[in-house]
Amino acid sequence: MATDYDNFGGKDFFTSLVKDFYQEIINDPILKPMYPEDDLDGAIERLTLFLMQYWGGPGTYSELRGHPRLRMRHAAFPIDFAARDSWLKNMTIALDKQQITDENRTKLWNYLQMAADSMVNTRTDGVI
Ligand code: HEM
Fold this sequence. Notes:
α2 (10-25) crosses α3 (40-54), α2 crosses α6 (81-96) and α6 (81-96) runs antiparallel to α7 (102-119). By secondary structure, this protein is mainly α. It has one domain (4-119): Globins (Globin-like), CATH 1.10.490. The termini are far apart. It has helices spanning 4-8, 10-25, 40-54, 60-65, 70-73, 81-96, 102-119. It binds protoporphyrin IX containing FE (HEM). Protoporphyrin IX containing FE is lined by residues 31, 34-36, 39, 43, 46-47, 50, 65, 70, 73-74, 77, 79, 83-84, 87, 112, 115-116, 119. Protoporphyrin IX containing FE (HEM) binds at residues 31, 34-36, 39, 43, 46-47, 50, 65, 70, 73-74, 77, 79, 83-84, 87, 112, 115-116, 119.
């Protein structure tokens, strides 16, 4: 049975999506400073492999990095609502450049929104 990974377009789709996403990140005033300037290729590879694995593709991410534990891995970065919104905005721009059906896009987008919400770990709006 075809996986979501296959339906979205397999490795080519995820590679292109994350490449286009990082093209936005490196011009993003909030997010750029958080990412490793000297290891952008590594960061691109990590996100690509994670998304491929999450959607039913090869398990290379965990072979290389172990259990994802994404919230823990993001604890080092101060992610407030503004950072989350920027991340999602950049992902929208990248998604707009891919060929994907509306149905698959909605499926992927719902997940990304949920995942980005769960990564928020700090607030800067003064509300406790
Ligand atoms: C909400 C806003 C987010 C911010 C500001 C953010 C920021 C970052 C930063 C700065 C890194 C380090 C880059 C690296 O060296 O790999 C990173 C890594 C990563 N992020 Fe995010 N991220 C966000 C949301 C997400 C979401 C929604 C996902 C998954 C759907 C995700 C998946 C990953 C993965 C897989 C890694 C690499 C983890 C590893 O193996 O070390 N991130 N993120």
